[in-house]
Fold persulfide dioxygenase.
Amino acid sequence: MRNHTASFSSSSSSSWYSNKLLFRQLFEKESSTYTYLLADVDHPDKPALLIDPVDRTVDRDLTLVKELGLKLIYAMNTHVHADHITGTGLVKTRVPGVKSIISKASKSKADVLIEAGDKIHFGDLFLEVRATPGHTLGCVTYVTGDAPDQPQPRMAFTGDALLIRGCGRTDFQGGSSQQLYQSVHSQIFTLPKETLLYPAHDYKGFTVSTVGEEMLYNPRLTKDEEEFKSIMANLNLPYPKMIDIAVPANMVCGLQDPSAKPDEALSK
Ligand SMILES: [Fe+2]
């Protein structure tokens, strides 16, 4: 069964980790955002969740969910994004019963507000919540469960806290380079080295890393805290072009106008 599914799942060898977990990494090219689909396909209901869906690609994601016979129960965000509008609002209007999730610390609206230590169950699988502020005040990392019946190696969905060979900027949205440094070192680099890291974005074509790899090769987070702070203070990045549209929309989890199509919403 496993070989059979692997043969047509995708060209990526990272699509299937166990007979229970269905995992897909999906890409939105305008904002270089990754959306992740996880489901417990061993459970009769095949409950599923989407992490960081984007409004423009909601149709694609929901078609995939339907084709795979999954029951979507959660649409969740790692943080309030500044570069795109979340798809969670649209998902909720298209699939009745789906609950949106974001951290309480983000001060945004959602059906479920989570905090560090919370567990998000889907079937017999679960994600644990780790608070990783610094890129924004409310950033969290979702990590697959630490138990024998959960996927191995563990997987961490880091949002913009830790990117592959990089990290999110810290100059907007309550960001703090000191806080980000401490978050990554205390909440992500303490995970087993083989833990797979799945960020919210990649701009160079990387798809996955590991804790061990970033501890060795991340050009920012391998430095000491003072040097890290200096690097982050001197990035000279342009003002995020979507921030004034995306942040207000995402503070209500994308439910700015449920009847508006994504493109109409973006042009307002
Ligand atoms: Fe972000």
In short: The first strand starts at residue 21 and ends at 28. The pocket of fe (ii) ion is lined by residues 79, 81-82, 135, 160, 168 (CB under 6 Å). The mean pLDDT is 90.
